Amino acid sequence: MKKVKVELGSRGYEVRVGADLLARTGLWLKEIGLSGKAAIITDTTVKGLYVDVLVRGLASAGFDATVLEVPAGEEQKSLETAGRLYSELSDAYAERTTPVLALGGGVIGDLAGFVAATYMRGVPLIQIPTTLLAQVDSSIGGKTAVDHGQLKNMIGVFYQPKLVITDVDTLKTLPEVELTNGMAEVIKHAAIRSSSFFEFLDDNLERVRAFHEGMLEKIVLESVRIKAEVVEKDEKESGLRAILNYGHTVGHAVETASDFRLKHGQAVAIGMVAAARISNRMGILGEDDVMQLEKVIKKAGLPAEMPDLDKEKVMRAMKHDKKVAQDKIRFVLLKSIGNAFITDEVSPSLVEEVLFGQK
Question: What pTM did the predictor assign?
């Protein structure tokens, strides 16, 4: 097991990465001063796979665990579902010291994190991500949120977990499409911050896609280190942390316009390529780097081209994005692989031209 510390003063915490970690969760909760009751929030699919081993580990450490189950799916990230979970926590006599354990992928992490942040003005949160996407991205950094209408993550709060337990064994039960989905965020971290990691991915994607355990642990650990470093420097996304949104300006709009038929990672992959092409058209990013990014994204099994979506719907969703400031859309672009920057100087006409071939 490896540990990465997210240094945020009194809000700092460890991300523990390795195999066969779930059974040790109870001991680690005691280690950070928790005891008594615990509430596990998970979805139907993950419950059948991992709740039993987690509950047994908690019980052996003296915790009385309550399991709160929601159906799988993005549509569960809602105020309505959060309201139901508040009631179930109250029915279970959850207290201010009762930790909420978010066991699942990004939807569960966001939803359970939002519930933990707002129930009784905040109870301890433990992130236990079970998908690659959640392990390398959404479980780290304290972003919690629910969707509102067709808009992703519009109602939320920054709320750091007390501990992140990343058991790479859970990736063995992922469908291949979900492993591929998570690779978008891994590639993103490399593209914005580490050209050497990007080259490593280019050389080893076949082993990653074959679920090679040591390789999975390595890419998760490196992604966690990159994200932790950025979050430490800018916890509330007032500056540098916005580079973690590379690919997301277009990606979230594409995801929304597809009525969430496209998975998050697929949409972000499309957004990364679009942002690279925008940077190239602005004379900033070289053509070779654009081609290299496209190659790695395709090698990972991700899409690089815009699907057939309604232009107005995509552009409207982009204008509603949280990254809009003073009616200008903030883009994260690349100067080179491993070197990202933030700008609001991208014209809507250039975005349309890159996405839809408009002249």
Answer: 0.92
